[in-house]
Amino acid sequence: MLSTKMEEALNNQIALEGYASFLYLSMASWCDTEGLDGASRFMHRQSQEELSHMMRIFHYISEVDGHPITPSVNQPPLKFESVRAMLQQVYEHEQKVTNSIHKLVALANGESDFTTLHFLQWYIDEQREEEALMRSILDRVKLIGEGPQSLYYIDKELERINEVEEAAEAAEAE
After folding, report:
1. Are 70 and 59 spatial neighbours (Cβ–Cβ below 8 Å)?
2. How confident is the model at residue 167 (pLDDT cuts 50, 70, 90)?
3. What's this model's pTM, rounded to 2 decimal places?
4. HSE on the CB side for 35, CA within 13 Å?
5. Which CATH architecture does the domain made up of 4-173 adopt?
6. DSSP 8-state code for residue 6
7. Orientation angle between helical segments 37-63 and 4-33, nearest 10 degrees
8. What is the pLDDT of residues 19-71, one digit of tens each?
9. What is the dihedral of CA 9, 13, 15, 16, to 10 degrees?
């Protein structure tokens, strides 16, 4: 059974994950308008992933006899200065999510809530992977540059990442 404080904190995390899903969906839409198909697909995938993170917490709260709350989500930005600025915003948002997960872990530890501690371990690993991926993408964008012709290569790089991720998912499903 969750404490009231833990239930509230997990519901706040649901809202944060929900916002991330909508933010990345908005980014995908912007990429579509900019003709960046690879970037759009990448952001659609990121949006779906964040939605699954949200639902995982939602179901967990129910499993431990809590009351998950469907969040109201603020309107994310509709336009972005550049692909690099957009990706930087993704990285910063992932850092915010990581910090929030760490606070949940500290709370669970302080309450000796070992069930929630175990549940949150997956998120710790996931956030490490997400931040590393976004850092590597930003590093590649810095190498490629940001001129009009560079956008083609950035888009192709994001499409390559999509293909690698899809192959990994297919291998896991087998």
Report:
1. no
2. confident
3. 0.91
4. 5
5. Up-down Bundle (1.20)
6. H
7. 160
8. 999 999 999 999 999 999 999 999 999 999 999 999 999 999 999 999 999 98
9. 130
Give the Cα separation of 28 and 12 in Å (integer). 24
The domain ranges of the chain are 4-173
Count CA atoms closer than 13 A to 25's CA, side-chain side.
15
Instruction: Please state, for a pLDDT cut of 70, what percent of the chain lies above it.
Output: 100
Q: Output the average pLDDT for the chain.
A: 94
For the chain, the C-alpha Rg in angstroms (whole number) is 17
Tokens of 33: 């308008």
Give the pLDDT mean for 84-102: 96
How far apart are the C-alpha atoms of 127 and 123, rounded to whole Å? 6
**Buried residues in 20-59 as b, exposed as e (16+ CB within 10 A):** bbbbbbbbbbbbeebebebbbbbbbbbbebbbebbeebbe
Tell me how far apart the alpha carbons of residues 160 and 77 are, in angstroms, rounded to a whole number.
26
**146 pLDDT tier (thresholds 50, 70, 90):** confident
91: tokens are 């990285």
